Please model this.
Amino acid sequence: MTRLLTDKIKHGLSIQRRVLFAALYFISINQLSHAAIQLPSANRECASCHIMWLTEFKREDVSTLIPYDPKPVMNTGAQDVSSTDPMCFSCHDGFVLESRYLWKEGKYAHPVGVKPSDKIKIPVVEGKNLFPLNDDGKVYCGTCHTAHGVDWNQKDTAIFMRVRNDSGQLCTSCHEEKTKGPEHGGHPIKVKIKELTQSPPTKLIQAGGQFEADGGVTCQSCHRPHAAPDKKLLVMENTRSELCSECHSDRYAFNREQAGHMGTHPVNVLSDKIKIPEELIAKGAKTGAAGEVICQSCHKPHDAVKKSHLLVSENDKDSLCQTCHIEQRKVANTKHDMRLLRPDSLNKKNNLAEKSGPCSACHLPHEGTGPKMWARNIATDVEPMDALCLSCHQTKGLAEKHTVGEYSHAIGVDISRLKQPVDLPAFSKGGVKTVKQMQGKVGCASCHDAHQWNPAHADDKGDVNKEGNNKTRFLRVANGAEAGLCKTCHQEKWDVANSKHDMRFMAPASTNALGQTVAESGICGSCHLVHNAKGPKLWARTDLQGQGTGYIACTGCHNKNGLAKDKIIGDHTHPMDVPVDHLSIQSTADGWVSTLLKQKSDAHKDEPVALQALPLYDNRGRPVNQDGRVGCGTCHDPHRWSTLPYAKTDQPAKLEGDADSSFLRIADLGKNQLCNNCHVDKQSVMFTKHDLSNASSEFSPLPAGKVDNVKDGSVKGACLHCHMPHNAKGPALWARNQGEGPSPIARLCADCHQKKAVAGKKSIEGHNHPVGVSTAKLATDPLIPVFDQAGDRAETGGNIDCASCHNPHQWTPGNPAIRNTDLPANAGDASNSFLRLPADHQSKLCISCHADKKMIQGTDHDLSVTA
Model:
């Protein structure tokens, strides 16, 4: 007894019980005999808590050392005395069981010392409360707990409870209003969490959340009556809906990107456009610590609107959505309001549009099919954001009358390709919108705001039975005469204004494929259609001609009957649909390099020389970096008259182009820079006798200034004296007249190489090597080209011609750097003279074709020896 009392005092009992045990200790030592101590007490087990029930305190022949007054010392009813913190701590401080964590400071516990509210219905059994209150009618620990009548074999529920609580029976006995489920605005209980045993909410369980053995939800799944870390007795913090996420993981996104991939409403995000209004807060909506949208912004686990998926407010006709999304209200009564346009259409949940609001026909807060909580089936072969629009704007879709067609504005391309930030949005795969950040991809919603019909007037709803125009149609920016929307991204194209491609001046009465004049379509719309265009480059006209790499649009106007019939390209024009690799040019995403030219500096010796990259196209006219082919747009930029400064005019029709303008991508500057950028192997012609820009009367029988081409007497540079990219006079883009000769190439050469002509001193009149004859019986060298009847190069079976033996652009074979700069004095010999191979004593040029004659070498007929 002595040791027991000493240990009890040592382990920190309540003050009242310590005093009583101390008194009993001194009684036992000073006044009781050893036999008396051994006398049993009828209530000794109860005396562990009810000390005053001990027989020793009822004896009249002894008195305690310290006076004892067995009255309550608490301010509440007598029932509270046996369940005060000090009383419980007398055992639960570790002496019997360590339970002090239940009263840990800063934690939350079921309220005691308060009277139950009107919502609490305490069950009555045999005329008595199943869960008693104290004498003051307040809840105390003994309301739920009792040390009496406990079935000690209970292992699946807490003991010392007045009723079993393995499935929340004790909680629901009083909180009956919380048990009726969603039909009455309460979170369901007893329902099974899918796949709980395979993928349990680990964090929730570790925090103290409890479920039924088969995965059923109970009150204790979310709440704990003691030591709860959050308000409302929640088992874990829920300021960012963390607790909700443990079970509703399919609806809980950590950011906007993830929400887009999951097709659910974003949570834990801040918005500069969306703010939870006070009227919603007053109804129980909550936000995160910094004002973030969380699950509880829309939902309440208890006391929610009945039959509403636990919403904090009614969502009749999508009213809850519109409470926060004010900007999106403008969609109501427009062509995107499915209640008006397609009232019989169904969303993914099979809800009729006519019975829903303007939002839910296209959006679902959870379980959407794509970004932006999309509510309809979508395609999978396009970017996720674009798939939303195309779910309706497709054949057999709700908007099949407004499809985008085969040729439509590019989507799914990185907006960074614009090289500058723009004031229109781009989108990630999850639908996250960025503006002026050069991040994300261009999509339908970059140009269109699906919720506002008229960008300038929010009150203009349009008419569901009328077509819009380029100032409405849900555009983000009106695209009128000044092409405001197009210019937002394509500012560099605005150089087309007041140029010869500005149809406002050149052909104001002409119409595009939609029958619109330029005044109706705007400056861009006269040539381009954003959707349902007639060809590559969004071509807006029907007068297309040709095929291939996108020059069908150019020739649609530049033909004998077209708008640009005075600027046609002729029969002999620069080749199209040809790759540039045969020019020894490597084209990649990083640019162009020439494998014929090498760096001259020691640091970069033997590295290929970089060229200016020009556009190339695939067989549908789409720009590509690799495996591309030449089109009109390779040399011409149709939106920019000149890369050099020039004075714009209100009469662009009077502009006359030259090699420095004419919509060319590289100005000539008298150096044939555009030609040389691709034809690097032809640059060796400069400062040779075939460079007519250096022609003089010293080696020409013609007076100076009379060697210009047949079109223009003011051309400069080595190329344009002999060649014209369009309307040439013969093969090889010949720019001069033709002389007499038996073959196409020979007639070109004869223009100069005849008496009284530019190269009269090198006339070929008389007896010459045969030209225009077949090489079928000759074993020609790959270095010796042959030509067809039109003068174009032939792969095999062609004819011999002047250019078979001569390379008119290179004075010395094998060494393009050697030029006959001393023009009058250098007459040339068999080792140069523009020959493709030397024709000197080894006769490489001759033997390349006439290998059967090689045996003459070293014989008496070999005059190089006999001489």
